[in-house]
Design goal:
Order of helices and strands: EEHEEE
Oligomer: single chain
Strand content: over 45%
Helix content: 10-25%
Strand order of the largest sheet: 2-1-3-4-5
Distance between the termini: 26 Å
Length: about 80
């Protein structure tokens, strides 16, 4: 089963994405691209990397957000530890 990763970016207090990157990436490529978006697009406060396998629904695989210092911070697989 092939897994595809794509990226959505959000501004603070906006419930819909302002960045749609529908290109499919490997997981590591998607992480690198998400970090690149943080450097290029100032208003982004969070980026979600979505994962989708053939025949399955999409799910959030990784969350990147700006911490209080304004630096990107990553959280992933947090739902598995609940």
């Amino acid at each position: 089963m092939e897994r595809r990763y794509y990226i959505r970016g959000y501004k603070e207090k906006v419930g819909f994405p302002i960045l749609f990157d529908d290109a499919t990436y490997s997981f590591e490529e998607a992480r690198a691209k998400a970090k690149e978006y943080f450097e290029q697009i100032g208003p982004l406060c969070k980026v979600i990397i979505f994962e989708q396998a053939d025949g399955e629904a999409e799910r959030a695989a990784r969350l990147l957000f700006r911490n209080k210092m304004g630096k990107p911070q990553e959280i992933g697989d947090w739902w598995e530890n609940i």
